[in-house]
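Standup notes, protein team

Yesterday: finished cleaning the Dracunculus medinensis set.
Today: Phenylalanine--tRNA ligase beta subunit structure.
Blockers: none.

Input for Phenylalanine--tRNA ligase beta subunit:
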Amino acid sequence: MLSGCALASEELDDLFFKYGLELDEIVHENLEIQKGNQRKSVEEEIYKIELPANRYDLLSIEGLSRAILIFNQQLNPPKYSLSNAEQKERIIILPETAAVRPFIVGAILRNVTLDSDAYASFLDLQDKLHQNICRKRTLVAIGTHDYDTIKGPFKYGAEIPSEIRFQPLGQTKEYTAEELMILYSNSTLFQNDSHLKPYLRIISNKKHYPIIRDSRGIVLSMPPIINGEHSRITLNTKNIFIEATATDLEKAIIVLDTIVALFSQYCKVPFQLVYIRNINKRIGVCMNYDEIMAYLSRMSISCRKLAEEYKLEVTVPPTRHDILHECDIAEDIAIAYGYNNIQQQLPNINTIAEPFPLNKLSDLIRFEIAAAGWTETLNFALCSGDDISSKLRRIEELNEAVKISNPKNSEFQVARTSLLPGLLKTIASNKDMPLPLQLFELQDVVLKCSLSDVGARNERRLAAVYYNKTSGFETIHGLLDRLMLSLAIKWSKDGTGYYISAHDNPTFLPGRCAKVIGPKNITLGTLGVLHPDVIVSFGLNKPLSAFEINIEPQGMYADCLLIIFIATFTALFGELLTYLLVYRSDQYKRLKNEMERKTKKLERRKEITVEADRNAKRKIEREEEKLKATNRDMNIFKMKSMLAIGFAFTALLSTFSSIFDGKIVAKLPFTPISWLQGLSHRNLMGDDYTDCSFIFLYILCTMSIRQNLQKLLGFAPSRAMNRQAQPNFFGASTASTNFSYLR
């Protein structure tokens, strides 16, 4: 029943579908209704409707029924306006609120008549807004008050909890804010207010609690926890004061506009210009002014034709905060027109898509492993923290996991960093199935990544487990060999194929674990027999073998670019520290100016006295000795000042070395001489000495980058100083030799 018009369930379902909503189901519930002195049971028909997340105006019965009636052309769109009240109220915001909830907005609904149904709907809308856009009151908290019981102007401040005392909603005496927090946290004391317990954490750690008072000091509300009993709304309330405190001002305005527009006729009227040509182009139809205006009217949007050709002025109601662009107007017109009525047309150009290479590879691997008799599983991407840490005997793994800030239960705390926990849980749930159990999964794991804009990245992995009365290591090894054979990767240790190497991993049994090394000596993953403690922790009682490999290993190209970026960053950081500690000091400037002056003076004297006598040559030699002494003083000053920089970059180098330890990051175009091979091939496996380690590439990059960076920034010594300075062991001038911080 919509405004006196009865509709069958099928008709209502069809109407909702045309409007873009989905009627999930219709259920019947028995409700107890009090009528006079008698209570009787009435069967009610409940419609469960799925609403779009951005249509807050449909969260109440009033908003939903109004929108459907307008769409069905049984009601005209409402026109909102803002009334000019004789007396306008003020809300004074005190500076203390900035550290708690800095924003507040308010409105007054005047001459409101609420019956029991409207009153219940009013409260229900507040609750739905709190759970949705308000994010359980963390972003916005709504308070409603009987305006006739309070007196403005209102003050919104933050006070010490022990100094706040008022009678909370539903209670018979006054409490301090400290007492209320304790009482609400104990659900057995205030059973009717147990729903407030989850909201206590929002302000419990604050030194000051937000509070709203009227001009007489009466407490209206302690947001976002509870309102005061003094300003409680009843069925006799005629004027309602609505306030919304927030940490997000935009969300607060949306919430206030939604409540005011659905329960009052007074509101602000925004408008937007829409081009007819753009609307037709986006939808793929050809409509004129009158047709578009009629369809907009069905969507509760009023508009008028402008004198300028192909333009409409569209009035966006305050309840439609989801309308942000002309595209949103076009979407509403398409809904009113009917998606099924839009003629399907082939595009002028055929664009044939190709599968993403990684997904294509994944499908081929799935088919190959399934053909070998293994069963694929599909597990949740979220798991508990224990699953990836203590149960796998890798406690440190929890520090590298992406954590869910507010998990609903303990089984969905973190994003998985390994596929093994999901497979082991699947086996634990199917222990009664005939042995052996041969399962595999090919899905993404989530790893922290500082280079990603979101702080994490996905990595596609393949994991397989074999569960039987014996460990079956040869079976899991055979599956790995079959997979590599199907991928045309041969068994080889020369960097062109794959092989396994002994490895220690706490998840696996000591002596029964190996690393899987792929082409270019890249570590793909781990293979072995699981440790008994791991097996028991997942509720299993038989031996189990497994492997987990990365099927999208990061190549040397990405590592090489990353190291160049690190070298550039450290060079910039080093020059910044050098500037702060050396270049801007008065002593360095004095020594540099003195060297420049003496160098130029010495060059002029040499040019004049080409065939000088012995005394003149002695003067030149004395000048050169003074120049060398000044140069030596400047280098000693720089070395003393930059010892701290050396220690800092030693720590940085150690950190980065641990990340790239054992990885081949580049291929050298030459074979280094024997005394350099210890550095260029450091911690690398194999005998190919063109493989480059992190430390060697980092040193090469930093040396070249920093020298050019000094010239670019103007910190390099002048050419005259370089010509006059004494050469060092490597042929470079002493004056140009800077203290090297691990370059």
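Follow-up from PR in the comments: The longest strand covers residues 22-35.
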